[in-house]
Amino acid sequence: MKRLTLTALLAVTLLSGCSTTEEVVPDVPPSELYATAQQALQNGSWTTAIERLETLDSRYPFGAYSEQVQLDLIYAYYKNDDLALGEATIDRFNRLNPAHEKADWVLYMRGLTRMAQDRSFMHDLFNIDRHDRDPEPARKAFHDFKRLLERYPNSRYAADAQARMVFLKNRLADYELATTDFYIRRGAWVAAINRAQLIQDEFADTHAARESLKLMAKAYEELGLETPLDNTRQLMTLNPL
């Protein structure tokens, strides 16, 4: 009986220890809760800011701070690398506020969030350039920034969006170049030519487009196609690396 009692006490102790691992946000007025969230944002304490903002969002979903809380959450999620939550919050905000005065910023943040999804912790940690990884997040980010420029050409975020589009275009071109090289190494000459032509059509002003000419020439040479090979060599002369 004593052993059973000690076991039960130990279980209660362990459960009590587990229950204190997550901070419970006190029940305070929304103005005070929002003030602490803003202070955490200013200090770069993203986890604390997110806790306060999520609490506000759940306790007062239609309160005076509702729209700003969601905007702050979009930013805090991005800074904290909670990218899926950030994108979900952006979708929710757009549904509820289709013509908001900060719609350009929200679209800009969607681009940043998707651009961040294109990298990984391991790539950052070891400084690895894996341009052959799936570029779908980069492609979506490119379209977000393009849409921003089309809808809000005078936005304060337009210049930065345009600069990011240049980076993303090179990222997408490098992926296509890696795919072309993959086909070359496996002797898939026609597939390599088609991919190289895609690079030159869609990403003509990139380094990858000039690199792809070498691979295209290799494929034409292997196929014994002299005329397109000569044309490609001329293009290589006109577009040196």
UniProtKB/TrEMBL annotation:
Domain Outer membrane lipoprotein BamD-like residues, every copy? 27-234
Instruction: Tell me if Cytoplasm is a UniProt keyword of this record.
Output: no
Q: Which InterPro entries match?
A: BamD, BamD-like, TPR-like_helical_dom_sf
Coiled-coil stretches are none
The places in or outside the cell where this protein is found are: Cell outer membrane
* Primary location class: membrane
Q: Is Cell division among this UniProt entry's keywords?
A: no
Any one annotated GO CC term: Bam protein complex
Against Gene3D superfamilies, the record matches this protein to: Tetratricopeptide repeat domain
Q: Could you list this entry's UniProt keywords, alphabetically sorted.
A: Cell outer membrane, Lipoprotein, Membrane, Palmitate, Signal
So which residues are the signal peptide here?
1-21
What is the purpose of this protein? Part of the outer membrane protein assembly complex, which is involved in assembly and insertion of beta-barrel proteins into the outer membrane.
Q: How does it assemble?
A: Part of the Bam complex.
Similarity annotation? Belongs to the BamD family.
UniProt cross-references to HAMAP family, sorted A to Z = OM_assembly_BamD (MF_00922)
The protein's name in its UniProt record:
Outer membrane protein assembly factor BamD
